[in-house]
Amino acid sequence: MHLYLGENPRTLYLVTSSQEEGKGRPRRALVFRAAEDKPYQAIVEFLHKDQVNLTNSVRLTSRVVKGCLGLICVGDDLFLAVITSATEIGNTRPTADSPESVAKIHEVNFYCLTSSVWDDLSLVGDALPSPTYVEQADVMAMRDSYQQQNSAQPAVFEHPCAALKKILSSGSFYYALSPHWDISSRLAERLSRDSGVADLGGFDYRFVWNEYIVRSLLDFRERLDMQEREDLDRCQFIVLTIQGYVGVFTIALPAPPTNGAPTLATLSLISRLGAKRAGTRFNTRGVDDDGNTANFVETETILVTEQHCFSYTQVRGSVPLFWEQQGLQTFGQRIQITRPQASQPAFERHFAHLTEQYGYVNAINLLGSKDAEASLTAAYARHLQIAKAVWGDDIGITHYDFHQAVRVGGHDSVMHDLRHVPGFVSDNMDRFGFTMCDAKSDEIITEQKGVFRTNCLDCLDRTNFVQDILSRTSLEQYLLLVRREWVNSNSLWSYHRELWAENGDALSRIYAGTGALNTSFTRSGKRTLAGVLSDATKSVSRAYINNFQDKGKQVAIDMFLGNLTNQTQVTIFDPIHDSVRAALDARLSEYSTTKTCTIFVGTWNLNGRPPFESLIPWLFPRESTPDVMVLGFQEIVPLTAQQIVQTDPEKKPVAHYPMPRIWENKILETLERRPSKKSDYILLRSEQLVGTVLIVLVKSELTAVIRNVEATKCKTGLRGMSGNKGAVSIRLDYYDTSFCFITAHFAAGHENIDERNADYRTIVNGLHFLRGKTIDNHDNIIWLADTNYRIDLDNASVRAYAEDDALDMLLAADQLNYVMDAGAVFSGYIEGPILFRPTHRYDVGTDNYDTSEKMRIPAWTDRVLYRGSKLDLSVYSRAELKGSDHRPVYAAFRATVHVIDHAKKAALGRLLAESVTSTAPGETLDEKLAALTFPHANDLPPPSSETEAWWDTPNHPNGVVPTSADLDLSVPQRGNPFESPLDSPLSASPSSSDEELFNHALALQPPMIPSKKPPPSPPPRQKAGDS
Q1: Cβ neighbours of 270 (radius 10 Å)
Q2: How many CA atoms lie within 13 A of 333 on its CB side?
Q3: How far apart are CA 59 and CA 743, in angstroms?
Q4: C-beta contacts of 790-794 below 8 A and 24+ residues apart
Q5: Among 89, 323, 774, 1006, which one is least packed by beta carbons within 10 Å?
Q6: Pairing assessment for the beta strands 395-399 and 360-365 based on DSSP bridges
């Protein structure tokens, strides 16, 4: 196919070539142009080639275009991504009815739909005239006009999609050459489908990397009629791509003695890298809240002969816990498990995905038993033991210290241990089996029933080595069943080793930037000096690339996958669906509910002192138990030069124990031993920057509904080079509402107002979370900080006013109030009324303000400020703890959070979309959509919360419904269906009349309580996350 550019309006034409039409493809064109006044919307048409006028268009490239990857918006411009160079790798299943050939992408280019500014001059210079051009002079004139339009742009300007092009042109992306097979799904999955022909809607989107940018085109395809949809697929205008590795070899195997001709077999290896938690080595670790792990790869070994197709699948992935590696990483591993007590829900979601997809799961953990890796191993084992209560023997784990085994017995010992040691991995090889089908009929003979999930720290070198052994072991089992002599084929195992060595290098280059270690042994079966030197060189290169180059690559990956916060997905103009989307947004209340949560926030400058008094007066000033507790500390360690340089929170202990851990344990002990304990708390996340620490604790039952927890920090001391001053922030999503908490320590000094203002601006501009999120991207923001703003009065006046509780006089001279009124800092934030005395500075252990030589002026340095329309401040005060020269400050909030029922939203969207086609004559589309009602099964009251019960309403306090409220004698009542007719002898009754019985009932004391046994208790309150 070819790509043309037309102007007035600017339009891109993707049209089939004469060669493709000669092979049976329809004569078609896919036309793209930008919608007016809507930068994130495109207009797409699928036309017959004869309907497209290319007279005044320019062919943008002399290369044959292989297909379109999708549409993406970068900045204010809209780009079309097309494959301009690709080569065929081979046919992975020659015995199939249609070829299952794979192509590797070598180059992808992005062409702008909205502006000529980004037209690539080199490509325009290589542009060819359309077939209808006659005058060559006209072509040259058009080229000159392009050059004149772009000559004003400096040569240093980089194309907005340059980083995306670099990733997509790296040689790690593959696609199916035929539209009839699905490269994203393993063989067993494809054969189990009802239809033998692949459909674009049935691909495994765990592994489709361009799903975000191609989604609008897939939606456009779904709206076409059946014939046009088939033509679109046959043209292969839309391409779905995977990232990973594909290798194919054709092998001659020994033949049976019938005719002596060799048997041709095809050996393939397909590795599909997951796109759900994608990224680079030090930037993407562990699991996310949906159960997706970093560097998750499904690898399938395929052997095809004339009789059978063999398939064996394995997976790899990062340890499915919340862990990361921050800061500069060299050759020592510094690992931080960020949510040690809140990983179980995500851990179980991950294994739920695995068991649903693959059946039985046996995890092979290759981490070491010493140093930092040991903590991950212990946590992994603990979480899996808990998960076995759900899945029982369907999941299991094998711990194998790979490095220790190699040190003791060499690489050969690993193969022996995995294949022969009783009670080890070998026991599950027979249990899991492999997939085998008939080569001619595609009938499945046997199917793989389980999968090995292998991991090391990076899931690269050690993992690839072990997976190679497992693949060979399974393949040997198959060969022993069908043709025993093939087990001794040197060429087969030579190609098998080569495929796995190339696979290890390819996956390592994607995740770590260099080839894999140990591949020399994988290729040759020997450990050589050249291999050792090569591994050393790769290790040094990795350290440099991962620390200094990968952050930019991570941003590009997130942009391509649509993970950046400020990204808007491109849509294709469709008036009906646009109206449906607008109506769906306007009816949020129909598929969402709200809940009320309570949040306790506290801040305290500790002056480097350990705890020695009860924290109850600060953490629980009232009897209520908040859902979330956020505690910020400043100067948790003394701000000496040594502590400032040493930023690792696990080192430089006080009395042989880190001060932050002492305070964490004190807080957890206080929560555990508090009087009238009603619920348990867990440490969700903590983060430290020298002396500044932020801790978030939540009720244990809420861990399943709190997601996307991230932490970041920003230095402001010594112009951003020192962490003695700065901020730490933790963000999270509570159901579908986002919160951001920031604790900070601003510049000290009475007169340093400008420095404090600068610290605030540095923090606001410098705090960045993953995927481009900033402080302002959150629904609710709470600062709990030692702002260090002072009171601009003399010392004697401040102390006198404080002693007399003349707080208004002090607030009038408060520096923070002054700069906020001037709009210099905290614009849009609110602070509750200050009804307590200044919190700084006291003599430690007393109620006396500073009596030292410096005699510092008392001030409200410790403050809580917030922003959020659904935040309601209920308490703002201080606690009278005397363990520091500051008094701790606390605030309590009630927050309203949204709970979106995504299944209900999807159902309502379908209802709206299906109903618009039945609009009556003269009825507007908006009227139709507004009149539609979503069918509700049974309207139920909102669920109970910690403070409210569903049966306790204003109309019925405590759930009591008086009898008189339900019965009214003036309303005609139906007769008793069992009552006899009046003329029947059975009608006479000695009992009282209905009126007498009713009046007697009214005279009783309501409500009536049975005397023998208590009434049944109300239904148990549903725990968060159970719905």
Answers
A1: 27
A2: 20
A3: 57
A4: 790/750, 790/815, 790/857, 790/859, 790/861, 791/815, 791/838, 791/857, 791/858, 791/859, 791/860, 792/818, 793/857, 794/857
A5: 1006
A6: parallel
Taken in order 830, 834, 839, 845, is the CA torsion positive or negative?
A: negative
The answer to whether 489 touches 514, Cβ cutoff 8 Å, is: no
User: How far is residue 147's CA from residue 149's CA, in Å, rounded to a whole number?
Assistant: 5
pTM: 0.80
- The beta strands (E) that lie in 857-981 are given as 862-867, 871-878, 889-900
Q: Which residue has the tokens 């019965």?
A: 967
Which CA distances in Å does 869 have to 778, 824, 844, 866, 952? 11, 22, 39, 10, 27
Any idea what DSSP says for residue 874? E
Alpha-carbon distance 495 to 818, whole Å? 75
Residue 809 vs residues 791, 792, 886: alpha-carbon distances, Å:
10, 11, 21
How far apart, in Å, are the Cα atoms of 798 and each of 801, 802, 860, 889?
A: 5, 6, 11, 19
3-state secondary structure of 595: strand
What is the rounded average pLDDT of the residues 211-232? 92
Give me the percent of the chain exceeding a pLDDT of 70.
79
DSSP letters spanning 367-401: --SSHHHHHHHHHHHHHHHHHHHHHGGGEEEEE--
What are 1015's two structure tokens? 């009434």
Phi and psi of 310, rounded to 5°?
-105, 140
The three-class DSSP label of residue 902 is: helix
Q: How far is CA 674 from CA 309, 441, 684, in A?
A: 64, 69, 19
Q: Give the pLDDT confidence score for residue 86 in this predicted structure.
A: 96
CB of 379 within 8 A of CB of 406?
Answer: no
Sequential DSSP letters for 245-312: EEEEEEEEEPPPTTT-PPEEEEEEEEEEE-STT---TTTS-SB-TTS-BTT-EEEEEEEE-SSEEEEE
CB atoms near residue 146 (< 10 Å)? 17
H or E element that contains 601: strand 592-605
Q: What is the pLDDT of residues 397-434, one digit of tens each?
A: 999 999 899 889 888 888 888 887 766 677 889 899 99
- What size, in residues, is the chain? 1027
Residue-wise pLDDT tens digits, 624-682: 899 999 999 999 988 665 555 554 444 443 333 478 889 999 999 999 999 888 899 99
Contact 300, 311 (CB under 8 A): yes
DSSP string, 741-798: EEEEE---STT-HHHHHHHHHHHHHH---GGG--GGGSSEEEEEEE----B-S-HHHH
